[in-house]
Each structure stands twice: as structure tokens, then as C-alpha cells.
Design goal:
Number of domains: 2
Strand content: over 45%
Number of strands: 30
Protein name: DUF4382 domain-containing protein
Organism: Snuella lapsa
Helix content: under 10%
Pfam families: CarboxypepD_reg, DUF4382
Keywords: Signal
Length: 373
């Protein structure tokens, strides 16, 4: 799988999450010898408002058939000892920590990511310049953050786990001390108990606008929102994105420009179906829409009037009654040129032509006085 790999489960809950395990079904008969199970582990990251978050990866370890807190029994997966910038693994990218490493069959009870002391963070200072700070790691975290897994591992199967590092929740500003503390918040998931959504984001003019793409997951399918969470990803330089760890279901995929001052607002793709263990590719790009404007005005007759906005094809874009003083405001009008018709019973209708509505702006019409019919 090359897209450019994943990005992100942003859980609103603060606990560690497991989304089960991934197993490839064995299509051979029982008489065929099975090889040892193998495991791959990839690291991904949720978006964070920092320039860089550099962490030293020492190892990934697992414990088989053992839920105890004892430090004995951990198996090293022989991950490379290296420093990585977590923010490099957003927007559909991931870091392979372990690839098809043979492990014993049984129950994979726990997994832990072991970090070193070479952790730093880069933040913009008051002069909008990059400034690097050490990330302090609490002693309780130095042996590795333990994740409860409880996944059945069988011979002849390959299991592909994702460690999702939530940077935003993992960085703690330590009050008056001035220290910045790394308290890792991770989730572990597997592709077979979730799917992937891939697609691209663009505009009507095929402009690439850096965007955040997200889906809202109703975890328990209940009216309460406490169990809901958002899965999100940044687009890359081509506008492509990948949402990983999306449970099976049907979703609205929403894309929103990162720059809030952009002329573009959100765009979405509706009824996107996700199947566990499969990649759903959205056929058509999600098109960002220009932010709408509005039209306001006043009818000096101080009567209730009906205001209708039509485009160049005479299609009705909006219609609305004024208040009793003849004042009106029509919102969410796409940028463009329109004809505005003001009418009331007993009066001659009045057309205002060539009304220009600009992006994210209010167009104020000159006051109008209707003539009695």
C-alpha cells in the first residue's frame, strides 16, 4: 500500500484505544504447513499546531499471553533507534517501525513504544521565528507507554498494527516552570477492523488549497456525543489525503482550508461507505466552495416585501420576506452577479440588475421605494 500512508485518529477520549487486530484469512487447507505469524507496526500522527515534534524511537516491544505489569516477558521487535519528526507523518504518510517481524502465536496482550531522551519541539516565538526546546519525559514514561491489545495471533497470519501518536494531547506546557513535557498519548489500531478513505481536494479552478479532511465517527451509534470522535488528515502538496482507522459505516467526508482567511470554505463528499479491511477511494475530488456573500437592503415604504435573487440563467438562488420595516438580509449567496427582484401586493415590482456579490462580503443595495400599482 503506497498511498502515502496514513494520518490520524483524533479521539476525543483521553484513554488508549484498540481497534482489534488484522488477520489475513488462510485460504489453504489444514494440511499445508503454516509459517510463524508476522507483525508490522507503523507510526502515524494526528495534526498538531507546532513546527516540529522530534522524538527518539528506541524500540517497539510486545508481551504475549501476559497482562501483568511485570517488566519481564517483553519481546523486542527490533525497531530502528532513530529520531523522527512526528509531523512528517500526517496527511496520509506513516513511519514503518517494524516490518513483517516473526512473533510467537498466542494472545498479543500488550504493546509499548519505547522512547529515548533525544526529544525536542520547534515552536514559533513572538517574532515568528522557529525556536527549539527540549521535551522533558516523565520517568514513568521512559520505559515505554504500554498499550493494552489482547489480539489473537495465529500461525499463518500477518498482522498490521498502527500506532497513532496524538501530538496535540501529548505536549504539556508545565506552568511556571517553563518546561515542555512529553506525555505520550497513543492509540493502537489494526486495518482489518477499520478501513481507509483516500481522495483529493481541489477547487473549481483545480487550485490546491492546503486543507484538513475529517469524518465524524459515532462510536456507539447513540444520541450522546461523549463516545464520538473525529478522524482527520491534512492534504499533501497535490491535494491528496488518506483517512486511516475509519470504522465500517457511511460517512460525510468534509474538507476545510487550514487558512481561516482563505476565500474558500468547506466542501464535502456524501455517503462514503467504508468496509473493514478495504480502501475506499472517492472517485471525484472534493471541491472546496468559495465562501458565500450576502445581500441587504431597505424598502422605504415600510412594508413587508418579498426579495428574490436570480442568476444569469433566471434560476432562483434565494427568496425571503423582509421585516415589517422593509429591511432584508439574504445570506449564503454564492459569489456572482445577480438580479434582485423586490415585490409586494399592490405595488409594482422593482428589479435591481447587475448586483455583484463578492466572496465573504455583504452587498448593500441602495434604498428602494416601490410604486403603487
Amino acid at each position: 500500500m503506497t498511498m502515502k500512508t496514513l494520518k490520524r485518529l483524533k479521539l476525543i477520549a483521553f484513554s488508549l484505544l484498540l481497534i482489534s487486530f488484522f488477520g489475513c484469512n488462510d485460504s489453504e487447507s489444514g494440511s499445508v504447513g503454516k509459517e510463524a505469524p508476522r507483525i508490522s507496526v507503523r507510526l502515524v500522527d494526528a495534526p498538531g499546531d507546532f513546527e516540529a515534534v522530534n522524538v527518539e524511537i528506541v524500540d517497539v516491544m510486545i508481551k504475549m499471553d501476559d497482562d501483568s505489569e511485570d517488566d519481564n516477558g517483553w519481546i523486542s521487535l527490533e525497531a530502528n533507534n532513530e529520531i523522527v519528526n512526528l509531523l512528517d507523518f500526517t496527511g496520509g504518510f506513516s513511519k514503518v517501525l517494524v516490518e513483517r517481524f516473526p512473533i510467537p502465536a498466542g494472545t498479543l496482550s500488550q504493546m509499548r513504544l519505547v522512547l529515548g531522551n533525544g526529544n525536542t519541539i520547534v515552536i514559533k516565538n513572538d517574532n515568528d521565528e522557529d525556536e527549539t526546546f527540549d521535551l522533558k519525559t516523565p520517568s514513568a514514561q521512559q520505559s515505554g507507554l504500554k498499550l493494552k491489545v489482547d489480539a489473537l495471533i495465529e500461525e499463518g497470519f500477518t498482522y498490521d498494527f498502527i500506532l497513532d501518536f496524538d501530538v496535540e494531547k501529548s505536549i504539556v506546557m508545565a506552568g511556571n516552570s517553563g518546561n515542555i513535557i512529553l506525555k505520550p498519548v497513543l492509540y493502537v489500531s489494526a486495518e482489518a477492523s477499520s478501513g481507509i478513505i483516500e481522495g483529493t481536494v481541489t477547487t473549481a479552478t483545480e487550485e490546491v488549497i492546503p486543507s484538513m479532511v475529517s469524518v465524524l465517527v459515532d462510536d456507539m451509534e447513540t444520541p450522546e456525543t461523549d463516545d464520538d470522535f473525529i478522524i482527520s488528515a491534512y492534504t499533501d502538496e497535490t491535494g491528496a489525503f488518506a483517512l486511516w482507522g475509519v470504522p465500517a459505516g457511511t460517512y460525510e467526508v468534509v474538507a476545510t482550508p487550514i487558512d481561516e482567511t482563505s476565500d474558500y470554505g468547506s466542501g464535502s463528499a456524501m455517503d462514503i461507505t467504508v468496509v473493514n479491511g478495504e480502501i475506499t477511494t472517492i472517485a471525484d475530488p472534493i471541491e472546496l466552495q468559495l465562501k458565500p456573500g450576502s445581500i441587504s437592503g431597505d424598502v422605504t415604504n415600510d412594508i413587508v416585501v418579498t426579495v428574490t435573487v436570480k442568476d444569469g440563467d433566471d434560476a432562483v438562488i434565494a427568496t425571503q420576506d423582509s421585516n415589517e420595516a422593509g429591511e432584508f438580509l439574504l445570506e449564503n449567496i454564492p459569489a456572482g452577479t445577480y438580479t434582485v427582484t423586490i415585490s409586494a401586493t399592490g405595488y409594482v415590482s422593482h428589479d435591481v440588475i447587475n448586483v455583484i456579490v463578492e466572496v465573504n462580503a455583504e452587498t448593500v443595495l441602495e434604498a428602494v421605494s416601490l410604486v403603487e400599482d
